[in-house]
């Protein structure tokens, strides 16, 4: 297996920023239960956009989780706060990893 980074960028719907990180705990908890999950980092850019980087044991495990997420927690406040048209997802094979 080759470790994989999943990089997701997005914007929030107007008025949802204040409670987003607290509401996002459901996503963190859900990810932690997924096969192959290794770590997650969520960041906010100066322009107000967000970057979510999740490290997986393999691309297949990342894709399997992506296929299930909306059916399992898609109605959560955290996912409903995201502007769907703003979402961009990509994957990259880990070439170097440092603690």
Please give the order of strands in the largest beta sheet: 2-3-1-4
Tally of individual domains = 1
Query: Mean pLDDT across all residues, rounded?
Result: 96
Low-confidence stretches: none
Known CATH architecture: 2-Layer Sandwich
Shape call: globular
Written as H for each helix and E for each strand, in order along the chain, the element string is EHHEEHHE
Number of helices: 4
* CATH class group: Alpha Beta
Sheet/helix structural class: alpha+beta
Tell me the radius of gyration.
Answer: 13 Å
Query: End-to-end distance, in Å?
Result: 20 Å
* Oligomeric state as shown: single chain
Percent of residues in β-strands? 25-35%
Explain how this protein is built.
The protein has helices spanning 20-23, 25-32, 59-73, 77-80, and strands spanning 4-10, 37-44, 50-56, 88-93. With 99 residues, the protein is α+β, with helices and mostly antiparallel strands. The protein has a single domain (4-93), classed as Alpha-Beta Plaits. The protein has a four-stranded antiparallel beta sheet with strand order 2-3-1-4. Strand 2 (37-44) and strand 3 (50-56) form a beta hairpin. The longest helix has 15 residues, at 59-73. The radius of gyration is 13 Å and the shape is globular.
